[in-house]
Request: fold
Amino acid sequence: MRSKRGFRWLSLPITASLMLALSGCSSQDFGNGFLPSSSHGVTNHTGPITQFWTTSWVILFGVGFIAWGLMAWALIVYRRRKGETGIPPQLRYNNPIEALFTIVPLILVIGFFILTARTMSDIEKPTVNPDVQIQVIGKQWSWDFNYLHENVYSSGIQVQPEQVTKKVSEMPVLHLPVNKTVELDLSSRDVIHSFWVVQFLYKKDVFPGRWNHEYFTPTKVGVYTGKCAELCGEFHSMMLFRVSVDTPEKYAAYIQSLKDKGQTGQLSINDSRNQNLPGNGSSTGNEG
Ligand SMILES: [Cu+2]
Reply:
């Protein structure tokens, strides 16, 4: 009877954590490792990234459960009983256990290193002769896009608070044609930013005085959420944008609309960022 009562208190935290884990998450979230389910098949990289993430946390949760289980077992089995006094027997130099907690983490670290290096080198592999090449230039607190092959540009204005909830359509938008290979060349006019498209499951730092590159193929038509992911000053949280993955016709129409507005040529990396002052209502990119 004693042991039955002793373990009853465990049922409460176990039930509570199971309820927490099982409520509010669908089986799709679970299979997706709780990454946004809207990221499914959005680029050629989202599959491998999801797989990498899910594999990692499943293994680490396994390790966690074993460690927590052993801790709970030791706490319960070796707890101080009634009438016990003094320090319990002191043990040291248990070679099998020391070998275990050296070798197992070593295998984990090497395994994760190989997994990471392999996934990253696949994702970072440059595309030779990409179909679309676009310069993405960060500036406090918006983005400029130079479409190199089409020789047009668009220049973003800092998002205003009401746009965050109401006027998504007025945010700067990077247009990409679906199923075409894309190279993005990223740099900054001022401080360090980070180009993050949430559903692409990838961020790339944007540095002044340096060009970084990102290669991928968008594979699903849609509009995706973009943010700056590097704290870059007062209006960092307003440095929002959208990525629109278009059908070939819609992409061509967008490029034509830039030409019609006279936005031909390219914005220089050395342009002033003052085109971005709040209150400048147009997004036609006044080079300064
Ligand atoms: Cu930023």
